[in-house]
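User: Okay, second chain of the day. Same drill as before: sequence in, structure tokens out.
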Amino acid sequence: MAVPPGVTGLDRATVVRDGSVVLHEVTLLAEPGELLVVLGPSGSGKSTLLRAIAGLDRLSAGTVLIAGTPTSSQTHQRDLAMVFERTHLNPVLDVAGNMAFGLLLHQTPKEEAQRKVEEQARLLRLSRLLKRRPTGLSAGEHGQVGIGRALVRVPKAFLLDEPLAHLDAQERVRMRHLIADAVKATGVSTIYVTHDQTEALSIADRIAVLNAGEVVQIARPQDLYLRPASIFVADFVGHPSLTQLPARLVESGGMAGYRVGARTLPTWAPVPPELAGHVGREVILGVRPEDIQEAAPDSDPDRAWLPGTVVAAERLGSDTYLTISTAGHRIVGRFPGWNTARVGDAIDITVDAASMHVFDAGTGVALHHPDV
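Assistant: Same drill. Structure tokens below.
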């Protein structure tokens, strides 16, 4: 492939460890100034991907590119700023010394290094820790110092592996936006690994979803949410997860509908061309929580609705998430925070069939997405 200038990442990279393929022909390239987030479950190969770029894991095939240049050099020669989930600080240096280490290693004058460390420490709220040794830090403080040590300089690329894992929820929100701002300010390519989809959706320019060592989709956050390539992606992106509802695609009077249990959910639209070959066949409907509403079927007999029973209620202030059993399946809907439904209550829900994603029941591949 033609490689764009200045990118950092992997081109058709394979990593084999102990006879098992950990990464398979992965192409993932972050552009200058881009924050590319790698999202995936545990064991999907996320950390191996970063280690391969850093030169810590050897490629069986493919190429590592650093700032647009293919490289097989040693890790210390690649000029990367790395943050790993478990931060390793030099125990004989205080926090200021640890943060300045990379700057001094790259011949930054001592006075300039001190100024940059103090400035970064203020942003990270670490000024009070600058004279402390690592043994006197909490796990969260260790992580913040590791982030500061990376952000204090301008490398060829940032590699961040679960950098916020040890921080509390409020601090994670502040730190992830600080990292995003730093990336934009430096114009450096950044690859950021996480299993936290909220983190990924909130700061990424693009998200790469990794599963079993393969990139299954790369897209902007909104596109990933609105047009997932498969059930796996749709289920992994969004909270609560997209509900998978088995159904049969039917056609009546030229209009499409989905048979769920004893009821048919009408779309009030013709069968989309991409679904023409699936009429009469089983499909999986992907239903987002925001596409479900409480119904009053007596007021509108033509309304598409399903009878159900509340089996769980999660109240989060502004929103209430109800898990509802309907047609032998469970579906999660988002309702106003003042909703008073309790477990065991009967509830009728409307489902906008025209707003649902449709997936192949066998392969899980997306067949149709709603117009947005």
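The chain has a mean pLDDT of 90.

User: Thanks, on to the next one.
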